[in-house]
Amino acid sequence: MVSTTTIIAAILMAVLGFAAGLPGCLILNRIPAKWLCDYDEEPSEELKSGKRYVFKKHGLIMGASLAVAFAASVMTNGLSAELFVAVVIFFVLALVAASDAKYTIIPDQFTIAVAVFAIAFAVTDLLTTKSFVSKWYEPLIGAAAGAGFLVLLDLFSMFVLKKEGFGFGDIKLLAALGVMLGWKYVLVMIVLASFIAAIHFLVLIFAGDDIGKEGKYLPMGPYLCIAAAATVVSRPWFESLFAMYKAVLEMDTLP
Fold first, then answer.
1. Is the predicted pLDDT of residue 159 greater than 80, yes or no?
2. What's this model's pTM, rounded to 2 decimal places?
């Protein structure tokens, strides 16, 4: 039974999340134009104009997404120290998703911010609930597992499919998220991100979009960001699934 305090807190967090769409747009319009370019590119006139994102479109989408993430975090995980670090990470991930979706770039500065708050999240988790990481070395394993998985996929794509599979920005972002989630949940997040991306890809195909043709592709950053938030929000459900799976394995090993 959800308490009245939790419901009120969820409503307040939803309002806060929705309101965060405005500063999110302001930040994306004010950051240096060079942040949204590859290292060897010069900013376009649009990037230099400072009118890259419009609140009535991008801000509302960002705000609605953050409202759901903030409220769901409270409803599923309750009020905790990790929650307040998580909502900051969600906000930065919203900036990452927006920049990658529109300009196919994940600014290193955003990734560094995710990494810093991911470390704070992992430390807080270790000192309190141990929900995602229970040993001091698990954030390191999580970072290696997340980045390593994408590196292997990228190598497979380059040598077998003869094209780049993932950008280095995706790899760095996943390493940062691995610090927060640990090896077990970062793998859950990767599967979830792949599933979300596949569903979106199929929807676009059936809608008549020319996605998949030469020179057009879906950036992976937004799916990683959505999956990361969904993994944090859904942790109690995944814990139940893990417990059920473990119980089944123990039953199979009984004489």
1. no
2. 0.90
